[in-house]
Every structure is written in structure tokens, then in C-alpha cells.
């Protein structure tokens, strides 16, 4: 991968963080409309905010005004749900142009989306639909990730999705697919450890094997969240505190990656700002352990 | 997304073209607890919930007017006819006013259509590009003798609407959680919706004020627009005092972005 335009320090050294040298922004939370007033009145001490790209790409109203004010004071990263990197539809260049503009406007440290497709034949179901994990899908996705990274002029960061179906056509595991994609397309990874847990429950794989296999040097961000266990399956609702098993996965992964920017997501029945922020701050203890282990 | 059950969707003509003779079990693996169709159903259920949530954000008063059950059915019918074709859900409801105005599930489709048009205008104004409003200094800088040939351009966050029912009054009671809703009897009403300091405002207008503002928004010179208003009004033509009050309200409310004399 020496020809990569984004590779700054080969070979990777864990003390440098990820191989793209994207910064460890600390412990942040997802920026949500219900917290706008609190943030603008209190300017709370938060390391950084993750911004849902699509909520700000097509508005010239109050949301964008608030985002401008927040981006002046806090580090920001963009996180999208509509790139549809796995779809067979052509890439939406209008969408990518607006995304790049928003990244420039907010001085976003990076731009992420999901390993998924959200629609086909011009239709959009606005869901993160899983892909079959095979060679054909890998070739297709590698090409598109490289194209997007060139358009955005920065390495795309991709998140592992939570999923509820698996395809018979898959010939490799999700972590094998994600690893090969990251290396061959030279992209960063947003490792959502709650998604790993949710999918491991739904599909019956070992979540620890997943996080152990992810290339640590490409992880530039973590996601943490709560979910809803329906008995027969788990739904990734972002509606609660993270469970102990998810924290354990986070700790396990931090030992491999070192300290990486970490973000707590809460999207359903969103509580007061301090409750969400307190959940994010819990990650600090696990990061300390990772630091101590790295120092030994 | 097919509006019916999974089995219907898989056997639809469109799915047959894509899948050939394959059955759902030939494509999707079962889990320890769920059959392939049950796994796909998780996505199907979330799809409609997501569409309803998105439309409810823009159309809360319409949902209140129709009731939760009818609104759910409206969403199901609507997204079947107008599925999302954009990366953003902000545009999902663009066709809803016209759709609900002829939707058979509504007891009074014309009322529902008017209410939806008002809510769509509010959503559009909320998201419109921010353009600076005409300031007092800019207004004062225009010589008195030049106002007759002045053209006043409204801000981007501006919509002018005419209704057959008093839907603005109805919407206000919904927002106030006041269940003493006004009777939605046939009555022509006129509203200007605009944004000031990033807040959306609605102002009831008389027919004469609406028509005058409409002429100005189309780019008619102020003198010609006033002449037209006087001609339309006959004995009910606006007085000089009324005209002065309207302009003062519109200008101080931030409705105009520029004044051009050429």
C-alpha cells in the first residue's frame, strides 16, 4: 500500500495512533437537535461532536446556523447514512459534492459512512442494508471506496453495520471482508463495538474473534451505543445504556488499537445531555487501561 | 419497498425479474431463531416506521386532523406511490399535499390538502437558504420619490399561500395543544409564511394584502402593484393607512431582502 496518497507513516506504530494520523479526539457524543439549546446555553465541556451529515446538507436554516456555532468551538467529524457505498446504483455525485462542502465548512476531521447499501434502482429505503460478503462484492466496493476517497480528497472511513440477515452467497466473514476492503481500498474504519455485538447475537458468531481480527492501524473511531434485545434477535436502536458485554468488547479492542476517538450514540428516547455525555465518559476508564497496557 | 407482506413482495413481477426462480430461502440464511422471511421482515417493519416518523416530523397537524390510524394508512399508501428517490428524507413529503387532497381515506380531502400545503410551506421555509433582510437603513436610503418604481424582493424563506379553509387557525390550536379546534367550514384564507432570526412565522393576511404581496413577489413595481390593488378593491380598496401598516409589518418582519430601483 506504499502508493496510497493517504498513508503517512508506514509501517504502522501503535504509538502514532492510526496509520492516517487522524487524531484521537477523545470522548464525544452524537450531535442531536434536542440538545441544541443546552449546548448553546452551557457550552459544555465535551471533547468533540459527531454530526449526521444528511441533517445539515440541505438546510440553510437554524440547524446549519447551530452547527456553524458548534463547529467553531468543538472538533467535529461527519457521519453519514446515505452514501450507499455497496449499491449497484451509480455513486450520487451531487450528494458527494455537498458532503465535501459540509466537511470543509465544519473543518471535519474525517467523514464516515457505513458498509452497506441503502437502495437500488433509484429508490432509497433509508436503511443500512447488509451486503453479501464475497469476491464480487469486494471488488465492487473497493472501486467505489477509492472513487469516493478521491472525490472527498481524504480517506473514507467506513463503519461495520449491525445486521439482521445473512446471505447464502457470502464466502467470507464480515470482518474478513472489512479487513480486505480497508487494506485494498486504503480506507479507515469506524469500529462500532455495539454493532459487532448485535450482529454476533443475530448471526451466532464470536464477537471477540471479530474485534481481534480488525486491522488495528486502520481504526480511527469507535462507536458505542445501547440496543434492544427482542429475544429472538437484537435491534440496534441506540436507545439505552451500553451493556457490559459491549464495554468488554470495547476494552478488548482498545488494547489493540490504543486510544482512538470514541463516540456514544443515542437516537431513540434521547435523555438529557448530561446522561448521554456521562455514558461517553465511561469509556475513559477503558482507555486508561489501554494506555497502561501500551506503556508496559 | 413492496407495501405487502414478504411473500407477496418476493412473488411480485419486479422481484421475479431480479431473482428468477430463486426463493427467499435460496438467498437468505436462517438464524438459530428466525426463518429467512422473518429476518427480512425486521427490515420491512422498520421501513414503514421510518417513513412515518419522517412524515410526522413535517406533518404533525395533518396527523392530528386525520387521526393516528388514518395517518398510518396514508403513509403506507403514499410511500407506495411516492417512494423516496433521494438521499435525504427532507424531500419525502413533497408530494403529500397533492396526494392527500385526492386520497379516499380522508373524510374531507380538500381540508387535508390545505393543511398539508401549509405544513409543507413551513418545512420549506425552515430549511430555505438564509438571505439577509432589508434593514431600516436601506429602506431610509431610498428617496421618497423613487418608491413608486421600486421593486421589493422577498427573502428566500418566504411562501405566500391561499386556502379554502381556515387551516392556519386549526394548526395553531394543534400547536397550543388546545383541542377546541375551529370549525373547518369553507372560508377563503390567506397566509404568508417566512423566517426571521431562524424562526418560522405565519401571518394571516386579507385577500387584498395577499394579492398585493403576490404582485410584489412577482417583481411588479410598487406603484403598479398598489394601482392594481386599488383597482381590484373597488370600494373595498385598501386605504393609505392600511398600505402603510402592511409595509411596516412586512419590512420590520424581515419579509424583503432587497429593494431595486431599476
Structure description:
The complex is a heterodimer of chains A (296) and B (262). In chain A, 49% of the residues are buried. In chain A, helix 7 (207-213) runs parallel beside helix 8 (244-257) and helix 8 (244-257) runs parallel beside helix 10 (283-295). The two termini of chain A are 30 Å apart. In chain A, the strands form two sheets. In chain A, strands 1-2-3-4-5-6-7-10 form an eight-stranded parallel β-barrel, surrounded by five helices. Chain A is globular and about 50 Å long. Chain A is α/β, with parallel strands linked by helices and 296 residues long. Chain A has a single domain (14-295), classed as TIM Barrel. Chain A is built from ten helices and ten strands. Chain B is elongated, with a radius of gyration of 24 Å. In chain B, 32% of the residues are buried. Chain B folds into two domains: 1-127, no CATH class; 131-262, Alpha-Beta Complex (Outer Surface Protein A, domain 3), CATH 3.90.930. Chain B has helices at residues 6-10, 13-19, 24-27, 36-58, 60-66, 68-81, 96-100, 109-127, 136-140, 167-175, 207-217, 222-233, 240-252; strands spanning 151-154, 158-163, 189-196, 199-205, 256-260. The N and C termini of chain B lie far apart (53 Å). Chain B has 13 helices and five strands. Helices cover 51% and strands 11% of the residues of chain B. Chain B is mainly α and 262 residues long. Classes of the chains: A alpha/beta (296), B mainly alpha (262). At the A-B interface, helix 2 of A face helix 4 of B.
Amino acid at each position: 500500500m506504499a502508493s496510497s496518497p493517504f498513508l503517512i507513516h508506514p509501517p504502522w506504530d501503535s504509538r502514532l495512533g492510526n496509520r492516517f494520523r487522524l487524531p484521537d479526539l477523545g470522548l464525544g457524543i452524537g450531535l442531536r437537535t434536542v440538545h441544541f439549546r443546552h449546548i448553546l446555553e452551557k457550552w459544555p465541556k465535551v471533547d468533540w461532536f459527531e454530526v449526521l451529515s444528511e441533517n445539515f446538507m440541505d438546510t440553510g436554516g437554524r440547524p446549519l446556523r447551530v452547527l456553524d456555532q458548534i463547529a467553531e468551538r468543538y472538533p467535529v467529524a461527519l457521519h453519514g447514512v446515505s452514501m450507499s457505498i455497496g449499491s449497484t446504483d451509480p455513486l450520487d455525485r451531487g450528494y458527494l459534492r455537498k458532503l465535501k462542502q459540509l466537511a470543509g465548512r465544519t473543518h471535519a476531521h474525517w467523514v464516515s459512512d457505513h458498509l452497506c447499501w441503502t437502495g437500488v434502482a433509484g429508490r432509497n429505503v433509508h436503511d443500512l442494508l447488509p451486503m453479501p460478503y464475497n469476491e464480487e462484492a469486494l471488488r465492487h466496493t473497493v472501486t467505489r471506496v477509492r472513487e469516493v476517497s478521491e472525490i472527498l480528497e481524504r480517506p473514507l472511513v467506513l463503519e461495520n453495520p449491525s445486521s439482521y440477515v445473512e446471505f447464502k452467497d457470502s464466502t467470507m466473514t464480515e470482518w474478513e471482508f472489512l479487513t480486505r476492503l480497508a487494506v485494498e481500498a486504503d480506507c479507515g474504519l469506524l469500529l462500532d463495538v455495539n454493532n459487532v455485538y448485535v450482529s454476533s447475537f443475530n448471526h451466532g458468531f464470536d464477537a471477540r474473534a471479530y474485534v481481534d481480527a480488525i486491522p488495528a492501524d486502520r481504526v480511527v473511531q469507535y462507536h458505542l451505543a445501547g440496543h434492544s434485545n427482542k429475544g429472538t434477535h437484537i435491534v440496534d436502536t441506540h436507545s439505552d445504556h451500553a451493556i457490559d458485554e459491549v464495554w468488554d468488547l470495547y476494552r478488548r479492542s482498545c488494547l489493540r488499537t490504543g486510544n482512538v476517538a470514541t463516540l456514544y450514540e443515542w437516537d431513540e428516547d434521547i435523555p438529557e445531555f448530561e446522561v448521554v455525555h456521562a455514558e461517553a465518559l465511561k469509556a475513559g476508564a477503558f482507555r486508561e487501561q489501554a494506555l497502561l497496557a501500551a506503556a508496559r | 419497498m413492496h407495501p405487502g407482506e414478504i411473500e407477496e413482495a418476493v412473488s411480485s413481477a419486479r422481484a421475479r425479474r431480479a431473482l428468477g426462480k430463486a426463493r427467499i430461502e435460496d438467498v437468505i440464511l436462517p438464524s438459530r431463531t428466525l426463518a429467512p422471511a422473518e429476518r427480512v421482515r425486521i427490515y420491512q417493519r422498520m421501513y414503514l416506521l421510518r417513513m412515518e416518523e419522517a412524515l410526522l416530523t413535517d406533518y404533525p397537524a395533518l396527523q392530528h386532523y386525520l387521526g393516528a390510524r388514518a395517518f398510518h394508512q396514508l403513509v403506507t399508501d403514499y410511500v407506495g406511490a411516492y417512494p423516496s428517490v433521494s438521499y435525504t428524507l427532507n424531500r419525502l413529503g413533497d408530494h403529500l399535499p397533492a396526494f392527500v387532497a385526492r386520497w379516499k381515506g380522508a373524510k374531507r380531502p380538500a381540508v387535508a390538502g390545505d393543511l398539508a400545503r401549509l405544513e409543507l410551506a413551513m418545512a420549506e421555509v425552515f430549511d430555505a437558504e438564509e438571505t439577509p433582510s432589508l434593514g431600516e437603513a436601506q429602506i431610509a436610503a431610498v428617496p421618497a420619490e423613487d418608491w413608486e418604481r421600486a421593486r421589493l424582493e422577498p427573502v428566500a424563506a418566504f411562501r405566500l399561500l391561499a386556502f379554502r379553509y381556515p387551516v392556519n387557525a386549526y394548526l395553531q390550536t394543534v400547536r397550543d395543544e388546545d383541542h377546541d379546534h375551529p370549525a373547518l367550514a369553507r372560508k377563503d384564507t390567506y397566509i404568508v409564511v417566512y423566517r426571521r432570526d431562524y424562526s418560522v412565522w405565519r401571518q394571516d393576511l386579507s385577500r387584498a394584502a395577499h394579492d398585493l404581496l403576490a404582485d410584489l413577489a412577482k417583481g411588479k413595481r410598487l406603484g403598479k402593484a398598489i394601482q392594481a390593488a386599488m383597482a381590484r378593491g373597488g370600494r373595498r380598496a385598501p386605504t393609505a393607512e392600511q398600505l402603510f401598516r402592511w409595509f411596516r409589518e412586512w419590512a420590520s418582519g424581515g419579509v424583503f431582502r432587497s429593494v431595486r430601483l431599476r
